[in-house]
Protein: ABC transporter permease
Amino acid sequence: MRLANVLQLGIKELRGLARDPMLLILIAYAFTLSIYTASRAMPETLSRAAIAIVDEDRSPVSGRIALAFYPPYFVIPRLISATEMDRRMDEGIDTFALDIPPNFQRDLLAGRAPEIQLNVDATRMTQAFTGAGHIQSIVTAEVNEFLSRYRSGAALPVDLTLRARFNQELNKSWFGAITNVISSITMLSIVLTGAALIREREHGTIDHLLVMPVTPVEIMLSKIWSMGLVVLAASAFSIVVVVQGLLAVPIEGSVPLFLLGAALQLFATTCMGIFLATIAGSMPQFGLLLILVLLPLQVLSGGTTPRESMPEIIQTIMLAAPNTHFVILAQAILFRGAGLGVVWPQFAALIGIGAALFLFSLHRFRLFLR
Structure:
């Protein structure tokens, strides 16, 4: 193997990527706008939920309840009639419809237990599951304040002192930004290497390479280092400019150490991209295979859901995936400020998985060139 061949072939891949505007737009979007918008969309599950109120009592207590709903959790409630309630729910205008019955205040002061009807549009799952609990708490607080003539907090037998580590503000956008960077690194590394190989086969340039004094190892390594370098540079830009700059997410650990782990992750995932490209006959087939591979990698690696909440057999199987170890080391370094002495098992696992994927992909690549 000649390193000069690997270098020149890699430069050829970079030139080919520079002439593909769609891939360049995808890279720019995945590491900038996609990360920014996805993290900003994660602040709260209940945000500006649409609610309407049918006030059939027209009493002071029903007015207090109507005024208790305000942004950012709810939009300003719209007062409607009972005949409008079902129609608005059917048309999807309101997520919640609160019906306060007649004589509600009179029954309340008489010591009876009047009921308020709450209609919920359960098709809006992210808001319906938590919104009903918020509405019940708001109504209960307003009724208790009305009956007691003053507002008081509930006396708890135990005082819970909360100390949040690594994310003192409990800001979900911090977690979302890092998770989306990890997902973009995995997705783009597989897409770029696979697309580079399929593009050469469709253009016929792979036949030109076979008659040149280059080996399959040199061809494969050139695609790995060139596409990996592009993704690594884009991820460094995203961490520094988008995550730390625009989103103001504090990075506790060493960014160079994280990029070193990202380089090992890229070595494994670029090999995976070459393997998928040797199986797929065209770009549409490659796209379908990509969906089958990316979804388990992103959902089961611990980036979206903690690994501890998954079945043990899934946890064991996913240890063979590079994403699992990359998510662990990325969160440890960027959130908790861990050093190499803490994350070295993940580095070792990525080296082992990357080497195994390289040998397996090289064998498949040689069969592909025949």
Observations:
- Residues 3-41+171-369 form one domain.
- The longest strand covers residues 51-55.
- The CA atoms of residues 23 and 276 lie 18 Å apart.
- The chain has 15 helices and four strands.
